[in-house]
Amino acid sequence: MALTPFTKQQLLPQEEKLEIARHKSELFIGIPREISYQERRICLTPDAVNSLTSHGHRVMMEAGAGLNASYTDQEYSDAGAEITNDTQKVLGCPMLLKVEPLTMDEIKMVNPQTIVISAIQLKTRKKEYFEELSKKKITALAFEFIKDEDGSYPAVKSLSEIAGTSSILVAAELMIGKGLLFGNITGVPPTDVVILGAGTVGEFAAKTALGLGANVKVFDNSITKLRRLQNNLNQRIFTSTIQPKSLLKALRRCDAAIGAMRGKDRCPVVVTETMVEHMKKGAVIVDVSIDTGGCFETSEITTHEKPTFVKSGVIHYCVPNIPSRYSKTASLSISNIITPYLLQIAEDGGIESAIRCNKGLKNGVYLYHGILTNQAIGDWFNLPDSDINLIVF
């Protein structure tokens, strides 16, 4: 049978699109010393640096970068890091890791097209910060925006766990000043703790308080969060929506009150000055929410050097960035979260390939070669933004 032109065309070999093999890339990471006030953490521990250098990557660190987290230059040097006193040399690396965002002075020393991975702390940023990064065509990722496989934010969750646990330990420490032991001793009434907020901070504060034998009462306006808290604690505790009469009754009896509320812009104030005046003399307030304004009307920002003040006979602890108090634990936590991402970026052949393959990592990108890719930041600062999915696909 004679072949028609159409049949001949069908029998011709067709082009086949083959997947191009991804080539591993070698990372050159710079870790400058944290200069922001009260910041004591570091992004990578010596073990994490050793993991990276053993995979053929370079890590350059500024001398003394890990001292506040109890890691010496010798430990980092033994792990394979290059140590230098030259800040500009470190900031000249193709990839930078920082806990705090870059300062404006540091941005000036950064090379164009650098990849920056750090916290963003959006509420403390100014429009000029993003404009300066954009001028240098920086690709920037924020810890707070990186998502896990289950859709959660691992860095935020981990630091919230530390903040929740430490809030109870801080309260226990402050109660010593009044001669009180936090807990449940036979024949002695147990410590009463009020927790405002049923998120991760509230959950871990409750776990720690319960572990020490305290009576715990949790208040939140979300029934869903309260139910989840009950399930996660695996035991029934007192929970309530925030109603002034019920809350005042609990505050009058409590030995310690923990503020763990969150809001979209500013944390809601749920405890008035009058309520604080009705609390026991010598009671303790630990306002973890002070990072976003505080949920006690009497709260005022304090420092790690002078962490407390007394108002209406009640001890107030209102230090922002509580995890920095436990700098080694917090550094271990950040390091364990970020190291696998760094190894994955190298395995995928660079940041461009990595964010194509990993949606959670892509969610962390807020600047891509100088283009703002986060709508929330664009709306907040009235800056033009683009959808990263239209740039990277």
List keywords for this structure.
alpha/beta; eight-stranded mixed β-sheet; 16 helices
Describe the structure.
With 393 residues, the protein is α/β, with parallel strands linked by helices. It contains 16 helices and 15 strands. The strands form 2 sheets. It has an 8-stranded mixed sheet with strand order 3-2-1-4-5-6-14-15, with helices on both faces. A 7-stranded mixed sheet has the order 9-8-7-10-11-13-12, with helices on both faces. It is globular.
Describe the secondary-structure layout.
Blueprint: H1 5-11, E1 28-31, H2 46-54, E2 58-62, H3 73-78, E3 82-84, H4 87-91, E4 95-97, H5 104-109, E5 115-118, H6 127-135, E6 139-142, H7 154-176, E7 192-196, H8 200-211, E8 215-219, H9 223-233, E9 238-240, H10 244-253, E10 256-259, H11 273-277, E11 284-287, E12 308-311, E13 314-317, H12 327-348, H13 351-357, H14 359-364, E14 365-368, E15 371-372, H15 375-381, H16 388-391
